[in-house]
Design goal:
With about 950 residues, this protein is mainly α. The chain has 38 helices and eight strands. Strand 1 and strand 2 (about 250) form a beta hairpin.
């Protein structure tokens, strides 16, 4: 009996229908969500950049293809095409013979292949047979004789096959040579055409690979791009470099080139960012700082693993740029990535990171802004108020004030400390009246504090009396200052000769500006100072010029004439005792209760109150950071330590109300701090003693930029030793000498490397003035540079030729000359080598520095052997070339103007190194460009003026003259 069908449930059908609809909708939603997820993962910012860069690259490649052939190349190509056509016509005319020879070559190739196979197989069988024969002989097998016979048979057959192979190869080569003769014109044209079009062919192949098409489109589709896309994240992992992430050292990974596609490619120098070619490509990307070895973030900072504009931690350089970048975020202004301690450096500050790898060096090569910034830190003595690691042992930059009353008076001191630049350009900062929002009550307070400081300095100063200097001639003094060498370190007023770039980092601003000297100092003190500076201040860097009494008197007369009467006519307000007592009470309340402070003040008399306020003002202002002041010999610096300022988090900076005017970055804050040190107090309600106290140095914007770079280099980031540039022993000596050279300002007179010698500009201006006055008669102004070179201190190191003073002079002579330069090499020069009073350690440091710079033996060099016959030939050449016409020989001065006179050759044996003499005679211009020394020994014998001497050979004649020169001098 059939089972009855169950009755259908209409409610179940309805529920099923709803479930189907729900399932369909959820499936559609899941599909859409998955699609959106895939697209969100695929639609990355960097893909747009790579697509745009590929378009630029295609355009550039097309332009390069069009420019691959110059007009000359195009003409050459037409000639080659004509030659190719002619060659093909000649080949066509001999087509039958060519085809016949080609067929013969093919047949010979087939025969050669078969014979070569037989030759190789027979060789293999022969090797096996020889092995079996050796085994049979070794084991005493009876088959040895038979095997020996088989080996002989195979050996004969192998020799026959070899002869056959060589014969077939020779016949084939002959046929090919004949074929080449028949097609020689065509083949030569094809080769020339291929060479001429090689670059164009390469570019066309590159264009074929990078030009977008169906294949690249499919490769870069979502999901399919898992295989081999052309758009992909680029990654560099420098060795030995790490990022400090949450106190953990993680390997550095840089993905910057994902967007900065053109960074290591030429041709994109004018392309917009992020496609621009890196500046100085060969140095920073392909040379010693190869991008695959050092990456990007070690220099630029930022987050190397980021692949978006924000997550890479870019930093705007200006407020305008910050606003322009706002399109990358939802707000009006660009908001940098949060919680990343090392945002990318603003434009221009990258050199600050050089010191992480270039440690223990005085100057980092090519890092001109960083070097200038560090030099400004040294010149201005920033380490006097701020502790900076590496600067702990440097002396105070300002003069010793323990005897200030012997040097000048309190009327001058008041006006000087109130506004130093009112007298002359100076590095002395201004402490008072420098706020943008200076209120009247603060101005009154400033006058009281300045008066108190003056009173303290005068009261604590030792007093020494200096006799009145002998009468001096003002004009003679002016001439001495202009010629003897003072202007290598000093300038007068707005004298800008030889000053380029940052004036306060120039060698000619190493010493103070001399304008207003007559207003500032006592004439007796000045006379004693110019005669012997170290007698007054043993730590001064100013050397002695060995002035006679009359010369010192003349210079004193001139300098005392440099007055600024308007400066001394400025008003000096009297001490406001009420304000003084109010300020003194403020200071007392910092240490005592209110009642004790009032009692302590009441116990002081008028003088004590003034001196107390002066002491507290000096302490608060940090004057002792630059000057030695009695009572502050051991006082600690007042400023914030800067040893790790470059790593300071932006969130720890107080922008005050300036955040609307400045980008929220460390470089922007530092720049503003240097320009207006107290601006972050503006519009704030603070008590006077809580206001910012850093003085104003009146930096230019360029100087502030350099200082920002220097301060950013003071960082806590450590680079492993393996990634740092390690100094060799010779380089260590060079750096120690370089420090002494900088502290002595040797470059004020001498060119060392690519910098220095600013005194030449002064000498050139003097010569131009004499030419304008027609002092020289028919003087050619075009020779000014050459004249200035001849009358200036010598070049000490030629960077391009890589040769200098170390290779030129013997170390023991240089040691003694630096100790006592009173016996000059060119006594007719007006400018003098100063006496620096170097210690024995400093003398050894300098001599070793120059020797190491030139990689020559130190301290002694073996003396050259002299052959009398060769030296005699050299003497003959010496006379023929009339060397004594310009050179001093045996103390006899030639009858020449000073600019044409050359050093005394009687000092050669004791002074010069023989190897340098040969290099100098061979090519003087290479060692010292612009020298008047002629190149007397041409390389080619036929160009030699005396071809009959030693065959006119350059090196032989140079050797002869060198040996003769080494015989000159005392005892020879």
């Amino acid at each position: 009996m059939a089972k009855p069908e169950p009755e259908s449930d209409p409610r179940l059908a309805a529920r099923t229908q709803k479930l189907n609809v729900l399932f369909a909708l959820s499936s559609i939603g899941l599909f859409l969500t998955t699609g959106l997820m895939v697209w969100a993962d695929y639609d990355r910012e960097w893909r747009q950049y790579q697509t745009e860069f590929n378009r630029l690259r295609v355009e550039l490649t097309k332009e390069q293809i069009e420019e691959a052939l110059s007009p000359e190349d195009a003409e050459r190509l037409r000639e080659i095409e004509a030659q190719l056509l002619r060659g093909r016509e000649e080949a066509e005319a001999q087509r039958d013979e060519i085809r016949k020879i080609q067929a013969e070559i093919d047949a010979l190739q087939a025969e050669w292949y078969a014979a070569d196979q037989d030759y190789r197989f027979t060789k293999a069988k022969l090797d096996v047979a020889r092995y079996e024969l050796d085994e049979a002989v070794h084991s005493g097998d009876a088959s040895a004789d038979a095997r020996r016979e088989a080996v002989g048979d195979l050996d004969r057959r192998w020799a026959e096959y070899r002869l056959e192979v060589e014969d077939l190869q020779a016949r084939s080569d002959a046929k090919k040579a004949r074929l080449g003769e028949l097609r020689s014109v065509e083949l030569e044209a094809e080769k020339a055409r291929a060479e001429l079009l090689a670059e164009q062919t390469r570019l066309e192949e590159l264009l074929r690979r990078i030009e977008p098409g169906v294949v690249s489109f499919v490769r870069n589709l979502p999901v399919l791009d898992l295989a081999n896309p052309s758009l992909k994240v680029n990654q560099i992992m420098p060795s030995s470099l790490y990022d400090d992430v949450i106190f953990t050292q993680t390997p550095k990974v840089d993905r910057c080139t994902t967007c900065h596609q053109g960074i290591d490619q030429k041709g994109f120098e004018t392309a917009p960012q992020p496609f621009t070619t890196h500046p100085e490509l060969e140095l920073y990307v392909k040379g010693p700082h190869a991008i695959d070895r050092v990456g990007c973030t070690v220099c630029h900072l930022g987050r190397g693993r980021g692949t978006t504009f924000v997550t890479a931690a870019h930093t705007p350089s200006t407020k305008e740029q910050e606003k322009a970048w706002g399109r990358f975020s939802a707000t009006e202004y660009y908001k940098p990535m949060k919680h990343w301690d090392q945002p990318m450096l603003a434009r221009g500050a990258t050199q600050s990171q050089c010191v992480k790898c270039h440690r223990d060096v005085v100057e980092v090569p090519k890092a001109h802004r960083l070097n200038a910034g560090i030099e400004l830190v040294e010149r201005y003595g920033c380490y006097g108020c701020h502790k900076i690691k590496g600067f702990e042992t440097r002396r105070k930059v300002g003069p010793d004030l323990s005897r200030i009353a012997s040097k000048t008076g309190e009327e001058f001191i008041f006006r000087w400390i109130k506004e130093p630049r009112g007298l002359r350009p100076t590095r002395m900062p201004q402490f008072w009246d420098v706020r943008i929002d200076e209120a009247p009550d603060l101005l009154r307070r400033n006058n009281v504090e300045a008066n108190a400081v003056v009173a303290y300095l005068i009261d604590k100063s030792a007093v020494e009396s200096y006799p009145k200097p002998p009468p001096g001639d003002l004009e003679s003094g002016r001439e001495l200052v202009e010629t003897v060498g003072c202007l290598a370190c000093h300038r007068v007023g707005e004298d800008l000769r030889g000053i380029e770039g940052l004036s306060n980092a120039s060698y000619r601003t190493y010493g103070p500006n001399l304008e207003g000297t007559g207003t500032k100092v006592d004439p007796g003190w000045l006379y004693a100072w110019v005669r012997d500076p170290k007698a007054y201040w043993p730590e001064t860097n100013m050397p002695s010029l060995r002035l006679t009494e009359q010369e010192a008197a003349d210079i004193t007369a001139y300098l005392m004439s440099l007055e600024n009467e308007a400066f001394m006519e400025r008003d000096r307000p009297e001490m406001d005792t009420a304000v003084r007592d109010e300020i003194a009470l403020e200071y007392l309340r910092e240490r005592l209760t209110v009642k004790q402070a009032e009692e302590s003040l009441a116990a002081m008399d008028d003088r004590e109150r003034t001196l107390y306020l002066g002491e507290r003002t000096i302490f608060r202002s940090g004057c002792f950071g630059c000057h030695m002041i009695p009572g502050f010999e051991t006082t600690m610096p007042i400023g914030t330590e800067l040893s790790e300022q470059g790593s300071k988090l932006v969130d720890r900076l107080d922008f005050g109300y300036e955040h609307e005017r400045l980008p929220h970055t460390l470089p922007a804050w530092l720049h503003q701090k240097f320009m207006e040190p107290r601006i972050f107090d503006r519009d704030k309600d603070k008590r006077p003693w809580d206001l910012l106290r850093m003085p104003k140095f009146h930096f230019t914007s360029e100087e502030a930029d350099a200082l920002v770079t220097a301060v950013l280099s003071f960082t806590k980031e450590k680079v492993p030793a393996a990634a740092q540039r390690q100094l060799t022993a010779d380089e260590g000596f060079v750096e120690r000498g370089r420090r002494l050279v900088r502290d002595s300002n040797c470059r004020g007179c001498h060119v060392i490397g690519d910098r220095g010698g600013t005194i030449r500009a002064v000498k050139a201006s003097q010569l131009e003035a004499l030419a304008a006055e027609d002092v020289f008669g028919d003087f050619d102004p075009t020779t000014v540079a050459s004249e200035a070179l001849a009358l200036s201190p010598p070049l000490l190191y030629n960077e391009e030729a890589r040769i200098g003073e170390g290779a030129r002079v013997q170390s023991h002579w240089l040691h003694e000359f630096l100790r006592d330069p009173s016996d000059p090499v060119r006594p007719w020069l007006e400018i003098r080598m100063p006496t620096f009073g170097f210690t024995e350690l400093e003398l050894n440091t300098l001599t070793h520095y120059f020797a190491s710079l030139d990689l020559v033996p130190y301290p002694f060099e073996p003396q050259a052997d002299i052959d009398p016959e060769t030296a005699t030939i050299g003497a003959d050449l010496f006379r023929k070339w009339e060397c004594a016409k310009c050179h001093v020989v045996g103390g006899r001065l030639p009858n020449q103007p000073p600019e044409n006179m050359a050093p005394d050759l009687g000092m050669v044996r004791a002074r010069l190194r023989p190897g340098w003499i040969k290099s100098w005679l061979e090519d003087p211009q290479r060692i010292q460009p612009g020298t008047r020394m002629p190149q007397s020994f041409p390389e080619r014998p036929e160009d030699n003026a005396y071809p009959d001497i030693l065959g006119g050979k350059q090196q032989a004649q140079i050797e002869a003259v060198t040996q003769y020169l080494l015989t000159l001098g005392p005892g020879e």
